[in-house]
Design the sequence.
């Protein structure tokens, strides 16, 4: 038996990627070098208090809807957050905090953030169709995979919702933040044959809610954009060319110390001492 490819043997994906997620697609748009570090080199990103808060809050909000509607109270959500953190901490965040006091302060801030949720939605009146929905669909020659926070049927039609624990952008700059939700809407249409009617970004900070109606034409444009992005990713890997794209976001990048865009950066001056 031979391993030599024949006309019947599919050639391996030139990118070496099994699938593309909305997050990695966004990374490539933001900075191809960042995409390389995460998706190709698979370098680990050190956990942060913000990541821990987001992961734990998402799990608590998901589980809130396991409760009967009358029991979906703020105190129930706080308890679910504490339970989720107890589960996640040993494996994912064992050394995140330097002291018990730091962890306690983080917990109080997190519960304050969760309290904001009840200012924009009444969970007793919502019955999601799906929560943490794992979506994997083939679009042309690429496979897109992601996990959608929530989908529900409302008076506005079929709504897909993304929880956010970070700071909301000003409304005039909010449109790019819908990039991932447009991909999820495309995947929902692919799976069910139905186009969602409304995209919702729910920022717990504030709280702030942004919505965007969606239609077939927008999703067709998103599919074309993903196809172009996939082609660009293929070319980048074939040519081993992932140009960095410096921006203000570099200040929050975990890979700045190895990025070629910063390799020749002059060191900061040392403050004079008396």
Sequence:
């Amino acid at each position: 038996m031979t391993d030599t490819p024949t006309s019947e043997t599919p050639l391996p994906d030139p990118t070496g990627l099994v699938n593309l997620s909305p997050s990695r697609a966004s990374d490539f748009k933001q900075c191809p070098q960042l995409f390389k570090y995460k998706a190709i080199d698979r370098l680990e990103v050190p956990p942060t208090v913000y990541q821990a808060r987001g992961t734990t809050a998402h799990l608590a909000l998901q589980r809130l809807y396991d409760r009967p509607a009358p029991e979906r109270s703020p105190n129930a959500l706080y308890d679910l957050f504490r339970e989720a953190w107890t589960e996640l901490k040993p494996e994912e965040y064992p050394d995140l905090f330097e002291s018990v006091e730091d962890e306690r302060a983080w917990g109080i801030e997190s519960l304050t953030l969760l309290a904001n949720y009840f200012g924009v939605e009444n969970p007793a009146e919502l019955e999601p169709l799906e929560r943490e929905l794992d979506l994997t669909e083939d679009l042309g020659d690429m496979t897109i995979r992601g996990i959608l926070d929530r989908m529900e049927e409302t008076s506005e039609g079929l709504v897909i919702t993304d929880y956010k624990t970070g700071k909301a952008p000003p409304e005039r700059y909010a449109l790019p933040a819908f990039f991932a939700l447009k991909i999820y809407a495309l995947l929902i249409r692919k799976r069910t044959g139905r186009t969602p009617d409304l995209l919702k970004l729910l920022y717990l900070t504030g709280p702030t809610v942004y919505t965007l109606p969606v239609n077939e034409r927008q999703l067709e444009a998103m599919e074309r954009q993903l196809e172009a992005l996939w082609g660009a990713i293929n070319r980048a890997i074939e040519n081993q060319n992932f140009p960095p794209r410096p921006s203000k976001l570099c200040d929050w990048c975990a890979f700045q110390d190895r990025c070629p865009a910063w390799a020749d950066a002059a060191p900061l001056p040392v403050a004079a001492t008396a």
